[in-house]
Amino acid sequence: MSRFRHPLVIVALAAALSVPWVLTWATGAGFGDVTTVAISGIAVVGASFLLAWGAETAEKDVPRAFAIAVLAVLAVAPEYAVDALYAWGAGSGGATAEACRSVATGGHGASAAASGLAGACQDANLAVANMTGANRILIGIGWAGIALLTVWQARRTADPAVDYREGFLATRVTLDKDIATEITFLFAATAWAFFVPLGGGIDILDFTVLVGLYVAYIGIIIRGDIETGDEHVGVPAYFQRFPRPVRVSTVLGLFAYSGFLIFIAVEPFAHGLENIGESIGVPAFFMIQWIAPLASESPELIVVAVLVYKARSTAGFNALISSKLNQWTLLIGTLVVVYSIALGRYGTLPFDQIQAAEIWITAAQSFFALALLVDFSISVREAVALFTLFISQVLLEFTFLRVWEPFPDPKYELLLAYTALYLLLGTALLIARRNRLHELFELTAFAVRKAAGRHPTKPDHAD
Length: 463
Description:
The protein has helices spanning 7-16, 19-27, 33-58, 64-75, 77-92, 97-104, 112-157, 180-193, 204-221, 234-240, 244-279, 284-296, 298-309, 313-343, 353-373, 380-403, 410-432, 434-451, and strands at residues 162-163, 172-174, 377-379. It contains 18 helices and three strands.
């Protein structure tokens, strides 16, 4: 092996990508937006490689699903930080449902206090907008894009997950049936999300249900089996040959350093992009809902692309689905905690009618995407449909509705129209695939009984 291809040299090169930004962060040096985006973005790339290697190495000692769940939490940590920032601003500014309604109707006048309260109410809406934007990007670009990348890369990697079929864009990426638990819990979280706007905001009940779902999910997967079938190569294979104490310390070190890098780099990266966008005329709200989440999701997408490049597309999709689950449960549920701490007492995080519709369309997109995956595969045609639906709604919102307003509130009408479309398509798919849905729930029930210490019989269709 060439000394330049030695695993430790490769790790050192990835870590070196982070050095300029770490020095910038440590010294407090200030740069322009373009330089900040470039340096912090390169650091995010390096951190993503370290994170992927840590997760793959960890699979020797813990169930793969648990290693991927840890990876997913670390990779989307910046999204939590951005949302928590807005939720804190809403609480510290006193944005309650009553106060925000009063501001919207001009009840507080034009005083400085009213201006501050209006800003807090805007922060509450931005917390929801950023969260829903991140979730829709993860599916519309993440799930769809990685499926297409997997098929593209399979020409080189001969990825066994790719099933070539005759017909228009019929080639499929098959998924591991072990993700039945994740898909089922995502169904449950998605179903609950439709009710969140009906409670007047995000409250303690949402926290209890959504965080409870994630805790139950972790309790199940941590009791799963440690897989031994996959042969790792490169850096993970090298680390997995270490004695267990050294190997565990290495994994923890990779997780800690990459998590630290992502935490300090992604927010400046996102804000830099926001500033660049605003300087060329892109509305601030649009930047915060779409560009900032796109930046904060970049570590996750890079990690999954690395796995696909190594013909580990199954692990890549597992990571994407796990990320969606923790964002759709922990991210939503914990917003009310941050908000209440900032408020100084328990309160319900308020949002306006538009953000209610944003939650509904996000839940509907999730429902449709899960209906696609219920047979443990996704075709090129389905990936294109997922991406097309996502990008068309964003483009319509950004361009068409800025110049044509046939309705009193065109954005609200647009969001409801797409919500209905997603629900219609998803329901039709689930009806057609009802037998596969039954199999999915059987596999999840098997995993639950096994985690509870029982010895259930494995379903015939589990393999």
